[in-house]
């Protein structure tokens, strides 16, 4: 079964149901109404080896903001819930990830303190139906809802599609490392005794 969580969020702007298995195999069933965002989340699931089921009904007649931000909130909540007491996990994860001409770094600390450092400049306003400025809003929502430190940086910029996809994949790989178990860690990886 693995470490799983199901989170439902209903507001006047969005209706979201998400199920996440941190110990999955990369299976994804995703429908947000924003094709490019679906593609990014499918890449996150596949490369993090997470099973992710996600159904979103959002106010896309307004714009993509609420749909993407609220999905980030729900995904962060699911990560936090699925982790439970965090005993035995590595806590930290990082990845330097290339995608053709683009190079991205991601670093995660599942410390219980939310923080986002996001350094990526897109030259295109949209990729498909996804506003590129929503990348930061998504990762901010994930980091704060999951109570994690998350650092994302495009080291070598290039094609906007490549940059966005590399960010999602690097985050997935870093998170996969952070949530993985180390048999040497008997409690939680903290001198305070809690995360």
Describe the structure in brief.
It is built from 4 helices and 10 strands. The protein is an alpha+beta fold and 195 residues long.
How would you describe what is shown here?
It is a single chain. The chain is an alpha+beta fold and 195 residues long. The chain is built from four helices and ten strands; from the N terminus they run E-E-E-H-E-H-E-E-E-E-E-H-E-H. Helix 1 (35-48) packs parallel to helix 4 (160-179) and helix 2 (65-83) packs parallel to helix 3 (134-146). The longest helix has 20 residues, at 160-179.
List keywords for this structure.
4 helices; single chain; globular; alpha+beta; 31% strand; four-stranded mixed beta sheet; 195 residues
Blueprint of the fold:
Blueprint: E1 4-10, E2 14-21, E3 28-31, H1 35-48, E4 51-58, H2 65-83, E5 92-99, E6 102-109, E7 115-119, E8 126-127, E9 130-131, H3 134-146, E10 149-156, H4 160-179
Parallel strand pairs: 3-4, 7-10
Antiparallel strand pairs: 1-2, 2-4, 5-6, 6-10, 8-9
Helix pairs in contact: 1-4, 2-3
Radius of gyration: 16 Å
Question: Helical region count?
Answer: 4
The tally of beta strands, per DSSP, is 10
What does the average pLDDT come to?
97
Using the alpha-carbon principal axes, give the shape. Answer: globular
Order of helices and strands: EEEHEHEEEEEHEH
SS strand fraction:
25-35%
Summarize the amount of helix as a percent range. 25-40%
Q: Runs with pLDDT <50, length 5+? A: none
Adjacency order of strands in the biggest sheet: 1-2-4-3
Class from helix and strand fractions: alpha+beta
Biggest sheet details: 4 strands, mixed
Query: Between the first and last Cα atoms, what is the distance in angstroms?
Result: 24 Å
């Amino acid at each position: 079964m693995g470490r799983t969580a199901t989170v439902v969020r209903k507001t006047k702007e969005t209706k979201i149901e998400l199920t996440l298995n941190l110990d999955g195999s990369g299976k994804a069933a995703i429908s947000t109404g924003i094709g490019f965002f679906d593609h990014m989340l499918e890449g996150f699931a596949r490369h993090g080896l997470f099973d992710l089921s996600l159904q979103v009904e959002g106010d896309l007649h307004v714009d993509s903001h609420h749909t993407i931000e609220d999905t980030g909130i729900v995904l962060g909540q699911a990560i936090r819930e699925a982790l439970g007491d965090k005993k035995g996990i590595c806590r930290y994860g990082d990845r330097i990830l290339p995608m053709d001409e683009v190079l991205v770094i991601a670093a995660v600390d599942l410390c219980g303190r939310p923080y986002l450092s996001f350094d990526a400049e897109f030259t295109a306003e949209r990729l498909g139906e996804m506003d590129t400025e929503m990348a930061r809003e998504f990762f901010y929502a994930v980091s704060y809802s999951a109570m994690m430190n998350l650092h994302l940086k495009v080291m070598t910029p290039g094609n906007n599609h490549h940059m966005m996809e590399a960010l999602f994949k690097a985050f997935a790989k870093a998170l996969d490392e952070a949530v993985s178990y180390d048999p040497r860690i008997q409690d939680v990886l903290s001198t305070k005794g809690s995360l």
